[in-house]
Design a protein that fits this description.
Elements (H helix, E strand, L loop, with lengths): L6 E7 L14 H13 L4 E5 L12 H18 L3 E5 L3 H10 L3 E4 L9 H8 L2 E5 L17 H18 L7 E4 L8 H9 L2 H4 L6 E2 L5 H4 L12 H15 L6 E4 L2 H19 L1
Parallel strand pairs: 1-2, 1-8, 2-3, 3-4, 4-5, 5-6, 7-8
Helix pairs in contact: 1-2, 2-3, 3-4, 9-10
């Protein structure tokens, strides 16, 4: 059985306050250098973001967000490093990013933060990632009431998908994301990961972004998540990646593209050997 390899989406946060890499790539030069590293280590897509969505993060102005991301997107496109995704909740930033070279809009709010997002995505004709989301970072931890986490997330995502289609987005341009970490506690995140088959029923490509998140760090030796460094989070993420390859995933959004690529190669080699 030949494995359908998911796309690797490498995270490039050009922010001072992202939860795992804030302030590491906060200059044009460091951001472009990191984009080169992501490309060389397996990224099919580079997801460029200029606003942190970690729990408790404050919003930044659209002007500040665009000043951070647009020059970098333009340079990545010029160098031809990989396909480019813009990680934004603002339709005006999405428009500017596409003009600069992005071909995917990754909206973690699923169009809820900016009512114009779906119309802009439809007009631009690019791919659109619609994530499950219930509220901004300052309030999302209080919005995690569900009757059935997997069914509720699937239903709410489908409602956003139907609205996007009604506003002109082609269904074949839509990718869905369960929104791990957004308005979900640790137990809910793990249950949702275990029941991604509910999202598969929607018949749309699925992107999963679990990399380095609190729910992964929270199960490592029972330590406080904030004490778990990126190296251990990356190893745990790679293990989860290998397990998730049992699902029909379109892509994996990760910080460590090399570890993810290695995990995919190991699983692919094992499957090919088993099929012989």
């Amino acid at each position: 059985m030949i494995m359908i390899r998911p796309k690797i989406m490498g995270v490039l946060n050009i922010t001072p306050d992202s939860f795992s890499d804030g302030n590491q790539f906060n200059s044009f030069e460091s951001a472009v250098d990191q984009a080169k590293i992501l490309s060389m280590t397996g990224a099919d897509i580079i997801d460029v973001g200029g606003e942190s969505t970690r729990p408790g993060a404050m919003r930044v102005s659209v002007e500040e967000e665009q000043a951070r991301v647009i020059p970098v997107i333009r340079e990545i496109a010029k160098l031809g490093l990989a396909q480019i995704s813009i990680d934004t909740m603002n339709s005006s930033t999405a428009r500017e990013a596409v003009a600069a070279g992005a071909r995917i809009i990754n909206d973690v709010s699923g169009g809820l933060a900016d009512p114009q997002m779906f119309k802009v995505a439809a007009e631009l004709g690019v791919y659109l990632v619609i994530s499950h989301w219930r509220g901004h970072s300052t309030q999302m931890d209080s919005l995690n009431q569900y009757e059935d986490i997997a069914k509720d997330v699937s239903r709410e995502l489908n409602e956003r998908v139907e609205l996007a289609i009604a506003q002109g987005v082609a269904r074949e341009k839509i990718i869905i994301d369960p929104g791990l970490g957004f308005a979900k506690d640790m137990k809910q995140n793990w249950e949702l990961v275990a029941r991604l088959d509910e999202l598969e029923k929607l018949g749309l490509p699925i992107l999963v972004g679990a990399s380095r998140k609190r729910f992964i760090a929270g199960v490592l030796d029972g330590d406080e998540p904030s004490t778990i460094g990126n190296e251990r989070r990356d190893i745990a993420t790679a293990v989860l990646t290998a397990l998730l390859l049992q699902r029909k995933l379109w892509g994996l959004r990760v910080h460590n593209t090399l570890a993810t690529s290695d995990a995919i190669n190991i699983v692919a080699a094992l499957r090919e050997a088993s099929a012989e």
